[in-house]
Design brief:
single chain; 221 residues; alpha+beta; Immunoglobulin-like; 2 domains; four-stranded mixed beta sheet; four-stranded antiparallel beta sheet; globular
């Protein structure tokens, strides 16, 4: 039987996964980064520790020799080995011994939404939604992305600037599932908002304000 090799993840990957999970959900992050959901949960619990280790590693990399003093009596190879031993064991096991720069913040999506539960006066957190674009040649909807709103009722990273082209789009909100999760019944099992984009260079904000028996939307920026 072939040996099983445990995959290693560096600090940047772990923190990027945590950031994505906070903005969307843990399950969405697990799917997006192709990792075990349990790892995502563990990394979220370790966020403060990961950030601390990341800063320490980054400072070490900025110093001459990676923060290690040179000794002319030893070869550069021996010097590298001494530096590796000085790194905490946790870092050696879990990640590459490299500089960890600040996480790359993705460019803001040209399309955004914000779900507000006006019946309770709170953000619509955990609302499952999907974004689609109409194929006018076949008159069918092509799924672009699925996700869920964060604790603030927002869903960052809906679409990239490159993928945002002129066309007819649809955002579908699983309102029935949302209200069922709150132990309430609602009149609308789902809400679909269809809109046309002619100038994708602009910023579009399409919020959803809803209660159990009504909803409204508008075009913002």
């Amino acid at each position: 039987m072939a040996p099983v090799h445990r995959k290693k993840y560096d600090f940047r990957f772990k923190l990027s996964t945590v950031k994505y999970a906070e903005e969307h959900s843990g399950e969405a992050a697990a799917r997006h980064f192709s990792v075990d959901p349990k790892r995502v949960r563990d990394w979220r619990k370790m966020k403060s520790e990961l950030q601390r280790l990341c800063k320490e590693n980054s400072k070490r990399a900025r110093l001459p020799g990676g923060g290690r003093k040179k000794k002319q009596s030893r070869s550069s190879e021996d010097h590298g080995k001494r530096g590796l031993k000085s790194v905490p064991k946790k870092e050696q096991v879990d990640c590459e011994i490299t500089a960890c720069s600040a996480m790359t913040t993705p460019a803001p999506s040209p399309l955004s939404t914000h779900v507000l539960n006006t019946g309770m006066g709170v953000p619509g957190a955990g609302m499952v939604l999907s974004l689609h674009r109409l194929d006018q040649g076949t008159d069918t909807w092509n799924l672009l992305i699925t996700g869920a709103t964060n604790d603030d009722g927002r869903c960052p990273g809906l679409i990239t600037r490159e993928a945002f082209i002129p066309g007819v789009y649809k955002m579908r909100f699983e309102t029935g599932q949302y209200w069922n999760g709150l132990g309430e019944a609602c009149f609308y099992p789902y809400v679909e908002i269809v809109f046309t984009i002619t100038d994708p260079s602009q910023k579009f904000h399409v919020p959803l304000l809803l209660s159990r028996f009504s909803y409204s939307t508008y075009r913002g920026s």
